[in-house]
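hey m, so remember when u said the tokens were messed up on ur end? i reran from scratch. heres the input so u can diff it against urs
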Amino acid sequence: MPDLLVKLYDLPDPSPRLEQLRLQGIHIRRAMAYEKQQVVDWVQQHFGPNWASECDVAFRQHPFACHIATADSQVVGFACFDSASRGFFGPLGVAESARSNGIGAALLLTSLHAMADSGYAYAVIGGVESTAFYAEVVECMEIPGSTPGIYADRLIRKEQA
């Protein structure tokens, strides 16, 4: 799974997407400290321990590097950055029941804008499974030779690999 490079100084405006979701009762915002355990547990339940670990790290950044999507006072999606590595976006996940309505795109744009506001000029989207999704939302390019990138299993000793 390759990494993608995104320039942050020429991003689409997320406002129209956010307003469209708001009219459906879905809100995108930065997570709050008191929500940490609930959000990390939700990520663990829906996406597993690796993404939950990265989400936990996002809550250790200042300001928090985790955005969430909520509907009816429930988490339905999340996006993090600066978790696996500085300047990296991800992970991003939306509950299966809430997919295909633009939540993922809104979370992506909101987080990338937050990265730009923090002073980054570029972001790396690490270990991408669906390059088509990202290419539909932002201008990006595949980074040559980036598989497996930083996600290589460094716990396996080289002689065992």
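this time it looks ok to me. The two ends are 18 Å apart (CA to CA). if urs says something different then somethings off w ur setup not the seq
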